[in-house]
Amino acid sequence: MKNNDQKPEFLFENINYKILLIGIGVIALGFILMSGGGSDDPKVFNEAVFSFRRIRLAPTVVLIGFGITIYSIFKNPKKK
């Protein structure tokens, strides 16, 4: 009788999942930065929609977050 006490092998290592969660957090932060700036009255236009935070900073943060998640997928910790 053979003993099959093999440890299940995951596709990624622990560090990959940690980096992935950081990337997802950065993406969420970018979307939080994008939110708001609307007007309560639909007949009144609010210039806050076009602020630096919503037009430049938030999309850049989201793209950086996507870059971090892509890095976490491609990172191969088994190479030495």
Overview of the structural elements:
- This protein is mainly alpha-helical.
- The chain has helices at 14-34, 52-74.
- Helix 1 runs antiparallel to helix 2.
- The radius of gyration is 21 Å and the shape is elongated.
Structure at a glance:
This protein is mainly α.
Note the run of SSEs as H and E. Answer: HH
Overall geometry comes to: elongated
Which structural category fits the helices and strands? mainly alpha
Distance between the termini: 37 Å
Calculate Rg over CA atoms: 21 Å
Describe the secondary-structure layout.
Elements: H1 14-34, H2 52-74
Please tag this protein with its features.
80 residues; mainly alpha
